[in-house]
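Mods, move this if it's the wrong board.
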Amino acid sequence: MKLVATKSITEGTELAKTIYSDNGQVLIKKDIKLTKRMLKRLHQLGITYVYIKDAFTEDIIVNPPISEELRIEAIQMVKTSFKDFQDNKVKSNGYLLEKTGTKMTEMVSNIVSEVKNRDEVLSILSDILISDDYIFSHSINVTIYSLALATELGLPNKQIHQIGLGAMLHDVGKVFIPEPILNKTARLTNHEFDIIKSHSEEGFNFLRKSSNIPLLVAHCAFQHHERLDGSGYPRGLTDKDIHPYGKLMAIADVFDAVTSNRVYRDAMLPHEGLEILYAGSGTLFDTKMLEAFRKTVAIYPNGISVDLSNGSTGIVVRQNKNLNDRPVVRIMEENGEQVSPHDIDLATHLNLMITNCDIASGNKV
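Not the wrong board. Structure tokens:
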């Protein structure tokens, strides 16, 4: 399969991965030839890229970090819980909050188990699931990224589970923000942005009322927008005053935000998302955590087009564990001329570098 820009796909192209809604409904099944109507729908949903079938890349596999069934189940649980929280009565209903905390703790354990047992680094999370409401899929994506980072850092099991629960609930304060402001795609006024920023404190105040949700979990909601140099919110904390969970959550939150499909902008590719993070290394984000996070994600995902320093162009075939910036590449062109496809392992060809990474044209073989 090959990762291609949705806007470049022509009618009749075969989809290589099924696209689901966040409730598990199949929107477009793999092996289906895309029609003009389907392509129009993908554009309307803001889908930047999809995986398609290609004669030269049939053996390329993209494994999800957790099963699609578990991911859909987790998103639905967050969606149901957050919708319940929107009811003002729930703010004083400690029983429901504690019951939800128990369910989410169990879900985190299931996700931890699958994340820890994965063989490859994390592939992009926004390619096969279309969510009607970004906050729910974002909560689960941040959970997956946070758990992978916590595991890479070698944190104790108890802390990993706390971080997972904190990530799942980090944006819970947004359910108390008026929907017209939360879902506004046009530029926010200063007043509206202040209202949006209040979700951190709203979430903290809501979660700390529960007796079975650790206070550190509530602080994930409170501190995920704080930055090392004090430029974050809600309290403008600096490095030494930000809890490690908050620093970790900030990285996962920003990475998923910029690499997710949104109706009003294209999703960035992983290497672009990492560039955004590294631009703030040591000033906005913890450098040690960034280095660990870089090891957990596929910088150049399987199926993506890359240019090499020797003038060759190819498709990433598979990842090299612990060397995720040097994958195996299937060479398709050399100096602009098509060649017989052959694989080069960048882990052993150290004289070659990836000089550019992009989403291929849907018509380009």
